[in-house]
Amino acid sequence: MNMDLSRRDFGKLLAGAGATAAFLQLGRSAAIAAPVAGYKAMVGIFLFGGNDGWNMVIPTDTTRYAAYAATRVANLVLPQANLTTLAGSTYGLHPALAPLKAVWDEGGLNVVLNAGTLFQPLTKAQYQASPTLRPVNLMSHSDEQAHWQGIRARDINVDGFMGRLSDRAGASSIPALMSFSGSQLALLGKSSTPLVLPSTGVVTQSAVSGNSADPVLFARNGAVSAFADGAGQGAVTQTTATGLSSAYAQVVQANTILSATSGVDQYFVNPTTGAALTSDIARQLIRVARMIEARSTLGHSRQTFFASQGGYDTHANQIATQNNLFTDLANAMLGFNKAMKALGLNENVICFTLSDFGRVYKGNAQGGSDHAWGNNHLVMGGALKPKQVIGTYPSQVMGGVDDIANDGRFIPTISQEEYIGSIARWHGVADADLPYVFPNWATFSTGGRGPLALFQS
């Protein structure tokens, strides 16, 4: 379930056949910032629907695994012997995430525990006493997707953290902010524009002269192409036409990269069978890898990508559903990790998961789990401090100090600012710009809080 954008926001994201919104950004100046030496990329993978992180990351020590097995409904419990053990920790991953064990073992995978949307650090007593301290409309798909992408827990989100991050980056002829998951709030900036590309095929331009035998369509396309020329038609038309022509040029450049043969594709194979990966998340990450491979051609020293996988709203039949989704996700992430290593860029690229919210710890009678709050996440990349599990696993007592209900709706103990902010800072966002990218930065960067210590330096 993807969040809906308003017509106005949709227009900001799409141009032509969905490549860019450059021609709609009239009167906006490019962001001005000195480029940072070296190359870095961040890849956000949004797990739409609300991933059950409590079956993605499970404690393996005797006491807490016993509490997990006793507290969750029986048809949600994963046998301890089947878990993917994370060596050196007291946690294991869902069995379908087994391909990521190799990444953990080499020091390229971290786990973040109980992260979520927060307006301020919150105790259960504060939650109960002061509704104004809570994020608005908690456990609503659309609202929590907006909270995660816009990073405002109590205000209307009109732009997103990736777009604002891009505002502070240097401009280039083709945007360094790209999505292979359609139009998303995270991509909206105040001055920058994203490139929205398909996960299969290439971008088609419907408004090109001479591309149709239909005389009406031919005439329309010719008119649009003439408009894109803009010569001698006044300042406003000229400005719009320049943006439209730029959008078409970006399409041509992007299509060249998407349609060419690339060496990165060979790494996206099933680790057991060797068969090429065909899932949508694999196709997205293949294209992300291609754009990273082409970074010099594109003139990018920094790149930001949005990818996603849907289907995580598991109110029933969760075991089978998560097994299928995690199999595709793990294989795609492993392939991406191998591709980055082959390019010599494993230490330059970070992948991280996001999701609407976590799900109730206890579960329900239908073999699923309902909407909740805090959640667990994965971070992958060669620049990480090796083999970290960051954060505090919540109390497994239903109705206890961490549970706002009586079924395991846990209050997050790590905010989005602390989680994503650490990645943004690594990516090159200056400390002075962090309050712009994360509007509530001051709340989570003082009083002993701050970005998570994910990275080696």
Automatic annotation (TrEMBL):
UniProt-listed InterPro entries: DUF1501, TAT_signal
Transmembrane segments: none
UniProt cross-references to Pfam families, sorted A to Z: DUF1501
Identification of the protein by name: DUF1501 domain-containing protein
Organism: Sphingomonas natans
